[in-house]
Each structure stands twice: as C-alpha cells, then as structure tokens.
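Suppose you are handed only these lines of text.
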Amino acid sequence: MKAKIFDTTLRDGEQTPGVSLTPDEKLRIAIKLDELGVDVIEAGSAITSSGEREGIKKITSEGLKAEICSFARAVKGDIDAALQCDVESVHLVVPTSDLHIEHKLGKTRDEVKTLAIEGTEYAVDHGLIVELSAEDSTRSDLDFLTQLFKEGINAGAKRICACDTVGMLTPEKAYDFYNNLSKIGVPLSAHCHNDFGLAVANSLAGLRAGAGQVHCTINGIGERAGNASLEEIVVSLYSLYDVKTNINIKMLYEVSKMVARITGVYLQPNKAIVGENAFAHESGIHADGVIKKAETYEPITPELVGHRRKFIMGKHIGTSALKQKLEEMDLHVSPEKFDQIFNRVKSLGDMGKCVTDVDLEAIAEDVMGIIADKVVELEELTIVSGNKVTPTASIRLNINNNETLEAGIGVGPVDAAIVAVKKGIKDLADIELEEYHVDAITGGADALIDVIIKLKHDDNIVTARSTQPDIIMASVEAYLSGVNKILSDEEAKRVKEGDL
Ligand code: KIV
Ligand code: ZN
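From them, the structure of the protein bound to zinc ion can be written out as follows.
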C-alpha cells in the first residue's frame, strides 16, 4: 500500500495565529515541499488577497512535480481566483454539519448541496481537478454527507475529503468514519485537526480504514492546536505500518527547520521526529545503552530523518557519554582529570545548569590547564551611554606589553566597546563575531551575566566565555579571551610549520 500526502502547510498551516507568508516565502517553501516529494501542495486560498494570488502564481509558474492546488469555497469568485493562478486543482469546500450550515451560513442542507454541485460543475467545466471537501464532516449527519459526496462525484469531483475540523475524532471513531466513506469508491482524504492531540493517530486510522490520502502540515502547524504533522505521519507509516509514501524521509529535519525559521513558529524540543530532543539522551543509563547499541533507546536512527544524536551533559550524565563527547571534541584526558571534569559537570547539573559544548570545553581546558597566553589584556574601559548620547567606548589595551588607546561608537554600549576593541587589535580587525549569547545566570538586576561568543578568523573558529555582573565587561572579556585563543592557535600553527 502507498499513501498520498496532500500538504497544506501553505494554506491551513498559514492559518496559524501570527503567521503570514510573503509570495517569495511561499515559493521557497513550495520548492522544498516538492523536493521532499509531497503529492499535492495546497498553495493557499487564491481569493484571500492579491499577495496570496501572487504567491500561488509564482508556485504554479515554477513547473514543480507536485499537483498545485488552491483552496476555494464553492462560489464562482473563489474558483475564478484559483483559475487566475493557473492551479491544477481546487480543494473545494462546503460545510456539512447543521451547526455550520445553520449558524455560520444561515442556509439549509439542500442549499449547501446545490452549492457543492454547482461549484464542482463550474470548476470541472473550467478544467480543474476537484477535491470536494466537507468541513466539520465528523459532526455531520452521515447520510447527508454521503449523499452530498455522491452528487459531487456525479458533478465531476475526482476526490473527496472529510474534515475533522475541530479534532473531535478518536482513532476508533476515525476508523469507522473513514471506512464508511471509503465505500463511496473514489479517492478519499482524511483531514484531521489536533485539538485533542489525536490528529496523527486519527489520520493513521483513516488511512488504515481506506483513505488513500492525508492532509497534513510540516511541524503540524495550523489553526488552534494545528493539523496532523506530516513528519509524524510519514515516519509512523514507514516505521510502524510498513506503508510507503513518496516522501524523501531524509529531508524531514531540514524541511521542518526551514518551515520553523520562515514561519517563526518554533518547535517544542520534545516534538516527535524533528524536535531538538527527539534524539537527545541525558540519563547515563540511556546514553551508555545507545553508545553500545543505538536501538536500546532509539526507535529509529536520527540519520533516517536527517537529524542527529546528542548526549546532554547534565546531572544525569554517565561516564560513557562524557568520554564519547570529549573524544568528539578531540580532548584526551587522564583518568584523574576525567573524574574532575565528570564531577564538575555533575555539580553544575545539581545547581540546575545544563552544560553546553562550550561549557564542557571550558571546564576541560581549565581542568587540563590549557589556558591561552594572554597576549592582549584589558587595562581600562570607559563607556558613555544613555538615552540622549551616542553610545561611546574608549579602551586601553596592553598588547605584548605595548599600550594602545582606542575609541568607538556603536548602536549600544556593548557594540561600542567591541568596535573599540577591534580598532585596538588592528592585526586581527577582520575577526568575525559569528555568535553572541547572553544568559542571566542568577535572578534580579544584579544577576551574574554569562556571555558566550564564537569568533572566526580565516578557517579558525573559537568559542570563549566570561561571566561577570556587568554585561559590557563580560562581553569585552569574552571577546578578548577569544582573540587570545586565536593568537595562541596561530602561534602554535607557526611553530608547527617552522618545525616541518
Ligand atoms: O479543517 C477544516 O475543516 C478545513 C476546511 C476548511 C478544508 O481546513
Ligand atoms: Zn483544516
């Protein structure tokens, strides 16, 4: 058996509160979805706005493999708007529950049936494939729903779709519901919402019951609690049901991250398949098991979905994971030093801190006594900042026993200080600040500030940190510590080349 994937990230997914995509963003996502292998891309709802039509048109002009579809209500204006965008199909929607028919539309069942038939005929006459969809169908009268679908098919609809609009199904009910509709005998889609966290389970039950296609979104984004998540459905089908799709599973993590970045809807870390913790192991027992044989605590390999395994350095850490991590970092330590590092990680964990890679490197370097020589030292730093002055910094540095005095302005005091530092270290002024993280370790206005930075010079990337009560001092000290690391690496490289 093979299941078809109808992706509605760009329509139902875009209905996520706060998400609004530009035409170019829609195009970028559509190109990725096509590469991923989805069968249908619901590119939007053409009637919505001119920007929406521009986005859909860009997608249909791209010559993608997937069928490009527009959402349309069963009214002429919506179908005409879809036609203007050159889509291949319409997802033609009418509500079928009495609740929606009476309270939302103020119409009767017969009027809605007529709308569905006439809308289908109009779209088919204009060359569109019609997937006739019933909104709130899981709260509709089944006989009426079946009748409406049958008449829609007589009018030319090629596929039907039953929507669990407010996520009221359970997997058991979903099985019976979709099984009944599958008897109509045309391709059937399950469109499930996640109000009770059951969208994926219900979609899978729908597929088992005879639906051949599921509607889903990347990361499960969508109205309220969202839609069924594409990655969870596809990987469950592949790993648990042995059902194939056209999806290139290896791309799932990459596509998930791209959609999160563009929509600004970031994932909870424990999101199945694509969350940051989906393959992260903290407990010593788990990490040890995974190092010996990954299947002990991983149902699928992270590589299957293009993700990666992580061992978390916290208070539950075990020796195997720490050994592996230090080896990955190319840090070779004696058994005594290893114990010291292990205990430092544990005690930081007890203080409620999770040890990042940068932390671990700093702890290991400290324990091993690897501290870069201080070629550049801070002698004096003065900052002027406020609401009516340009943030200005003057800095006195001691570089190889020579003093240098420089000043800089910036968008804020930290920026001004870094500008002044860069002027002071002329030879290394082309250093790039790749990352800058600030964390308040303790609470209150007098919190200890932890600054972690990543600097790049030529091919060398170093990380450095400083923890101080003053954010500007912490930033400058972290920066200078990184500069000293780069100088020390470059000196070591010169010595090595001289040796050869
Ligand atoms: O969930 C739903 O009912 C829908 C329809 C409007 C197609 O998204
Ligand atoms: Zn929906």
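What can we learn from it? The chain has a mean pLDDT of 92. The CA atoms of residues 323 and 338 lie 8 Å apart.
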